[in-house]
Amino acid sequence: MANDVVNVADKSKELVQKGESEGLWPQKLSSQDKQQLAYIAAQYGLDPFFGDLTVLGSNAYVTSSGLKRNAHESDDPPVSIQLEAVNMDYNKRHFEYKALLWKESSPDNRPYIEYGEASPQDCNRMISGSDKDLKAMARTRATNRVIR
Fold it and tell me: Which terminus of the chain has fewer CB atoms gathered within 10 Å of its CB, N or C?
C-alpha cells in the first residue's frame, strides 16, 4: 500500500516534468493545477495530455472522453451501452435519458442503469439554447454516470 502511494507520487512528478519540458500543459494552468491533474492522472491511469482531465474553477474533473477511454481500457470493459429516452417534455424543455451498460461480469447479465437529465435551469446558458443541445447534454450525463 505504501509503495502504491510512492509510485503515484513519483509518477505524478514525472508527468508534471514531462508536461513542462515538452510544453504540453495549457499556459493558463497554475502550478497547483498541474500537480493536481498529474496526481489524479497517475492515480487512475488517465492521461492529462490526451484530454482525459480538465480544470474548472480550481477543481479537476475527468472529461467524458476520459471516462470512455478509461472504461474501454479497463480489465472489464463495457460490452455495450444503450440509451433510451425517458422523458421528453418539450413544453418545459426538460429531457431525461436512461443509460444501460452491460458487462460480461454483470451478474445475471443485468445492466447497470443510470439517468441523465437536462433543462435550461441546470445547464450553462450557452448550452441551453436549443432542445437539441439539451437532449445531447442529457444523453452525455446519462452515459457518463453509467460508465463511472
Answer: N
